[in-house]
Amino acid sequence: MVSAATGALLAPTTAAQAQQEQQNQQEQQQTVPHLTDRHGRVLTLRGWNVEDKTNRGDKALSAITERHFRDLRAQGFNFARLLVFWDDLEPRPGQYSTAYLKKIDRVLDWAARNDVKVLIDAHQDVFGPAFGHRGVPAWATRTDGLPFTPHPDDWFAEYFEPAVQRAFTHLYEDPDLRRAQAEAWRVLAGHLAHHPAVMGYDLINEPMGELREGEDLPTAARRIERDQLTPMYNRLADAVRSADRDAWLFVEPTPIVGEGVPTGLGRVDDPKVVYAPHFYNTAMEAGADYDPGAGWIEAYERAVVEYPKKYKVPVVVGEWGPLNNALPNMGRFYREAMASLGRYTSGWAGYVWCYGGGYCAVDGSGAFRTNKELTAEPYAAGVAGTVASASYDPRAGVYRLVYRAARHGSRLTELSLPPGSWRVTAPGATVVRTATGRAWVLATRGREVTVTVRRGRPSGAETAGRGGRPAGALFTPATGEPRGIRPGASHGLHTAWPEPD
What are phi and psi of 358, to 5 degrees? Predict the structure, then answer.
């Protein structure tokens, strides 16, 4: 997240600068790599952050219940970014909380039971509890006696307090703190490596650093990313890989990239890296409405694709969503943001799935708050082939996917559908509906397939494939599985998609 204090340190981006990006959007879709699973299927993650920042110690994670994951899945989402805290994992140096690990296990078990894949996020806000927040333990916080003044009305401004900035410098540079952070990740990854819900690790949330005298914020951000974050991510990648060889590693730039500032991150030497920026706007975080003429979304998109193009890694946006979602232009914001995210990302996690006001996606009854429902769209959770294009028209209620079916590996493409009536057609292929909110497309190898999903009542044509077989003929009565697809076979029918490797 960003604040008004951050905006004051940034140069504005003009709409004219953003217009050029519209000419490059198709190129971006082709050159930013996709997230894939071990079967080579192209994955799309859609979901929300799940958190409990309030409770700690014996009550840690107690605000999260199975309802979070059940409701997520019921709305068509397949992904959650779960916030965990180093200060709970290691309350004293070298003493790791087995009770906290068990609490994480319980939450992950709920996710697995509801077919939601989880990104483990090592979260920090304003460094940690030494400054009244969560994250890096107080015992690992070194300030050299520099001052800290709380900003209760603008907490993000606390990142610019001298004590906080110095604490980041010590975390990045002190050998013993480097070792402690790496060991915490070894313990966490070692414990979670084989859990079926875990698909990746976000190595640190919204990292910041220390500005030098006379340095503007974009320059400082690029230096911190280049000289401190890149080496840190390589250290932490090595630590995780000593315990988990399969999960994806998510790396974040500083939050300044949200203002259209390209990252200075360098290469992270691991074959399964995901670039995971956040998507927040200074003015909107301060309570302003979306300004469609400012060109912010276009500027962000232009900045954020530079890194994945250069280093050939997929993009998953780890947080996004405004605080005041009911303002007059917010419906347009959600439509334009969703279209933009669909052009270059392999998915996203909105902030945040909770039941109430503020940033919460839903109210106490579980109903979407104003405009948040626009995040629930049809999408292809896993495509067995090469994607040529994929887009959704929210006004027409039409999703269209064009792909060439793989010549080897899985033949099943999975669609995720939000609540309501949806008609799915794929001429020349077989469409199978086996569960509410799911559909699978079985295509001939090497064939170009066009899948269309339309809002409205399904018809007999929805499940007609080669030979026009009706829906009932595609099911095995005893199991409800599609005929010819063995229960337990590696087609991804028992999970939203096979666990990535």
Answer: 60, -130
